[in-house]
Amino acid sequence: METFKKLKQFYWPYKKYFIASLFFVLIVTGITVVYPMVLQLTIDEVIMAENYDLIPVLSVGFILLMAIKGITNFLQQYLGDLFGIKSVYLLRDSLYKKLQHLSFTYYDNARTGDTMSRLTMDVEGFKFFLAAGLKELVRVVFLIGTSLIVMFYYSIPLALLTMAVMPFLIVVVRKFDQKVHPAFRSIRRSLGNLNTRIQENVSGMNTVKSLSKEDFEIDRFTIDNKEYREVNIKTSHIWAKYFPLMELIGNIAMVSLLIFGGWLVIEGDLQLGELVAFFSLVNYIIGPLMHLGFIVNQFSQAKASGERLLDILEAEEKVTDFEKTVTVDKLKGDVKFKDVTLRYYEDDDEALKNIDFEVPAGKTIGLIGATGSGKTSITQLMARFYQPSEGEVYLDGRLTTDYSLAFIRQQIGFVFQEAFLFSTTIRDNIAFGNPHASMDEVIEAAKRAQAHDFIMEMPKGYDTMLGERGMGLSGGQRQRISIARALLINPSILVLDDATSAVDMETEHRIQRALKEVMDDRTTFIIAHRISSLKHADEILVLDDGEIVERGTHEELLVNGGPYQRIYDIQYKDRDAITDIS
Ligand SMILES: Nc1ncnc2c1ncn2[C@@H]1O[C@H](COP(=O)(O)OP(=O)(O)OP(=O)(O)O)[C@@H](O)[C@H]1O
Asked: Given this model, what pLDDT does residue 469 score?
């Protein structure tokens, strides 16, 4: 119940639909119980008493009753669906919003396929219970209650006999629930795994094919597919075991009633019509009691789904806005790291150790070092993708936490090594961070990023549609679109994280020349492995294992015999070697 209580905020605002739907359910159920009573009247008061004049009256009454039942049935169904649909709309919306605000730490561990299955299958599972299950539960309880009252009215001993069966049925239904709930959780989890496998396979198809790992992938999928099959079979087994048992108990009750009721009729203690009516009524008890298993099943599924949805809704947003944030129009671009240490997880090794540096606005800073030395981590701390474990990061002399997250991220333009392009037009991809930009501004940014020419060569120019991973574009072209995207937000701080690694030296040179102009009035961080990419920086920080081991200009670092000089020697010796060969 805890799960449903926690999710109340999503369905309670629409309670009016639920209450109205319940009202009509009660009318439908009431009419259902009247049917056997009409049957009893027809047999005992019309046929047995030979009062055939009453037939037209009874017929008209019956038709009227059916018409009312039809209309109320429509209303209860429609309003119930409305309740479910509106509630999950709100739920889906909140889940998506939450996903937008969850911090990077969450996504470091989240699996896309599993998240997708939560947002689709689990939301649907929850909706089904809201729209149908909950109402069905009320209908069943009401139907059993009213049927029992009418039964007691007809014959107390027969009603007691019926009631004697109920505890057995209830025990079986409860046992069924205990078994079926974990089974449904496994189904959901297994489906999440399956979706993850498919999603990762499609996303990583290049790697799979280039390493000829198709068979390996098929085997891995088969394992997950088998697991999904097994949990479904297990669940089906539970169903198959419990439902016949419930039916058996129901049938025993019917046979006992037939024997005992028949004897009462023979003895003259019960009228024939009453026995016939009783049989219909018994069906209204046994049937719903067995159906209760189905409802419990839906309830279990909804509970399992609800728990998975709460996992997302209650996930901690590790990086959030602090209570008081300052409002500034624009950052100048001063950056200062004071004794910053970063551990991605509490007991993890330090990814950054005692990082101390200062960059005045407008300067260009180069970050170089082996892979995993902490270059990207430095820039991510600036934009508060993560929180430093110790030390402080300042922008324009204020702590990064003094600003709102949205503001900081508007002010820092990132170009990542892996440029993600959305499946929309090139124009929209460039304007993603600034959708109100004019076409001229988009073209200007593209020109600076050396992207305009190749875009114009495409059949539809800026209106060319791109695939999810920028299908049809080379790595270098994707990077240039990503640079244009970053430039279009007119950031005070620009971070080029290996942003030109996929373009040839000549294009890199052209991009750098074009960027020089835009870099003049903004602080720029260039992360690169190639010395040629950052040698013009005002200061270069050389990182090793999370520490700054050297700093200075290109010229200074070339002569002090440190790691930078070694990198230089390797890269330029290579060049000389190549020149020698040719
Ligand atoms: N999201 C993360 N969760 C846990 N550890 C991380 C995460 N990102 C980076 N690390 C670890 O932090 C260290 C520094 O990583 P970082 O990405 O900053 O290095 P880098 O110098 O930018 O490397 P590269 O040149 O390969 O991009 C590495 O040991 C890495 O494994």
From this structure: 54
Tell me the pLDDT band of 208, cut-offs 50, 70 and 90.
Answer: confident
Residue 581, pLDDT score: 42
Over the stretch 245-259, which tens digit does the pLDDT of each residue have?
888 888 888 888 889
Above 70 in pLDDT, residue 284?
yes
Nearest residue to 426 (alpha-carbon basis) of 383, 456, 391:
456
Instruction: Give the per-residue pLDDT at 22.
Output: 92
Test site for ligand 1: of 106, 340, 377, 547, most ligand atoms within 8 A of the Cβ:
377
Mean pLDDT over the full length of the chain: 86
Q: Is 316 in the pocket of ligand 1 (CB under 6 A)?
A: no
Our answer on whether the CB atom of 108 is closer than 6 Å to any ligand 1 atom is yes
Calculate the alpha carbon distances from 472 to 139, 210, 464 in Å: 57, 18, 10
95 DSSP β-pair partners? none
Contact present, 91 and 309 (Cβ < 8 Å)? yes
CA 303 to chain centre: 17
Gap between the Cα atoms of 113 and 195, Å rounded: 4
Other CB atoms within a 10 A radius of the CB of residue 59 amount to 11
Indicate the top mutation candidate among 346, 371, 418 to test ligand 1's pocket, ranked by most ligand atoms within 8 A of CB.
371
Tens digit of each residue's pLDDT (9 = 90 or more) over 233-246: 999 999 899 888 88
Pairing of strands 335-342, 390-395: antiparallel
Is the CB of 375 inside a 6 Å radius of any atom of ligand 1? Answer: yes
Sheet containing strand 493-497, edge to edge, reads 412-415, 493-497, 523-527, 364-369, 539-544, 547-552
Predicted confidence (pLDDT) at residue 337 exceeds the cutoff of 50:
yes
Which residues face 198 on adjacent strands?
none
Q: Are 253 and 162 in contact (CB under 8 A)?
A: yes
Domains of the chain: 2-313 (1.20.1560.10), 335-581 (3.40.50.300)
Q: DSSP class of residue 334? A: -
The pTM assigned to this predicted structure is 0.74
User: Is 372's C-beta closer than 6 angstroms to any atom of ligand 1?
Assistant: yes
Q: DSSP letters along 510-527, please?
A: HHHHHHHHHHTTSEEEEE
Determine if ligand 1 sits within 6 Å of the CB of residue 369: yes
Q: By three-state DSSP, how is residue 20 classified?
A: helix
Atom of ligand 1 nearest to the CA of 369: 21
Q: pLDDT tens, 474-500?
A: 777 888 898 899 989 889 999 988 877
User: Distance from the CA of 52 to the center of ligand 1, in angstroms?
Assistant: 90
Assess whether the C-beta atom of 351 lies below 6 angstroms from ligand 1: yes
Indicate if ligand 1 lies below 6 Å from the C-beta of 344: yes
Determine how many CB atoms are found less than 10 A away from the CB of residue 277.
24
3-state secondary structure of 366: strand
